Amino acid sequence: MILLGAGGTAADVVSLEGVPAYYPLYGGCGPTAAGMIIGYWDAHGYPDLITAGDGTNSWTTNQQAVKDVIASPEHFNDYWGYGTGDRPTPPAHHADNCIADFMLASRDPRVDGISDANKQDNGLRGYAHHVGYTDATSDWLWYASLWDLFVAEIDAGRPMEFFVDVTADGQAEANHFVTAIGYDDTPGAHRYACHNGYDNLVHWYDFAPPASGQTYGIETGTWFDPVPEPATLALLGMGIAFGLIKNRADRRSTRRLNHLSKGESHA
Description:
Blueprint: E1 13-15, H1 29-42, H2 63-70, H3 73-79, H4 99-102, H5 120-130, E2 137-142, H6 147-155, E3 160-165, E4 176-184, E5 191-195, E6 203-206, E7 217-225, H7 230-249
Antiparallel strand pairs: 1-4, 2-7, 3-4, 3-7, 4-5, 5-6
Helix pairs in contact: 1-2, 1-5
C-alpha cells in the first residue's frame, strides 16, 4: 500500500505499508533484506512465496517458516563454517531451496552471512522461480542511475534492496543491505526510508552515495518485480544501461562483499 498526501494525490513523502521488518538478522543481512521483499509480496498477491506453517509472512506467528525461506536448515548445514576454514570439506550440497542459496551467500570464500551486491537479484529471482513464479524478474544498478528508478518502483508499490555504508568511516565502501520502502523529495530533502535489520522500525536516511560522515550512503540498488510490465522494463533498461557504463568505468569490483554486521545471527 502506498501512503498518499492530502486530497488523494501522490505526496512528496511516499512510503509503502505492509513491508515486514524482520529482526534480528537471519543468515546474513543480504538474505534478510531480500526476505523482507519476498515477505511483502507474499501478502500482496503471491501467496505461494511462503507456504509453510500458517502460510503468512508474520515474524510473530510464522517465524520459523519465514526463516526457512530466508536461509534453510540445509543452507546452514552445507555452507556455514566452511568458508572460514574451521570445518572440513562440506558434504554434497543440497539443491538450492532458499533466498540465501540462490544469492550464493556464505559460500567459500565468503564467510558466514556474507553475500555479494551483484547477487541479490539472483536470490530474489531464483527463489521466486523456485516456488513457481517463473515470470519474476530482478536486477541491480549503481547509485548514479538509481533515484528515478527508485521513485518509480515505490510509486508502483515495489520495495527495493540497497547496499549501503553503515560505518561512514571514510572508506566509501558499502557493507550492509537494507530494504528500501519509501522516499522524500520535498524541497530541501532527498531521503529514503528503510528497514535496516537492526530493529523493526522505519528509518530515514539521506539518499546519497557512500562518503565520510554519510551514514547509510548507497552504493547499489536491487529491484524485484514478480510480474513486470512493459513500461517498467523500458525504464529499467535505460537505468541498467547507464549502470553498466558506470560499472565499466568504475575500478571497484562488482563482486564486493558486504561485511558480516554486528548482531547478525542464524540463531
